[in-house]
Predict the structure.
Amino acid sequence: VQLVESGGGLVQAGGSLRLSCAASGSTRSINTMGWFRQAPGKQRELVATVGSGGGTTNYADSVKGRFTISRNNAKNTVSLQMSSLKPEDTAVYYCNAQMRYTNYAYWGQGTQVTVSS
């Protein structure tokens, strides 16, 4: 499975960005998809996940009410709509795909999100 992210960039605090991740390869074997982020000097952390059907979502407390994850299985994409962005949201955001049966996880190359104050 290959994951390619897009949509990162520089935005002012309070602004919005939409990240997208396109999956290719053995996409039928993908279970949960999600977004993680890693800020400089910090560990990678979960931002949001969405189940295989798109109906089950999970968010980090820090982004609840501001970020929305969605999934389009027909297009093999997962998106993250980010609103009311804060400087502390600045990080490299990584797309993640967890495989059925093996729980092996694939990662995208990451996309930088920078929120200026």
User: Anything to note?
Assistant: The first strand starts at residue 2 and ends at 6. The two ends are 37 Å apart (CA to CA).
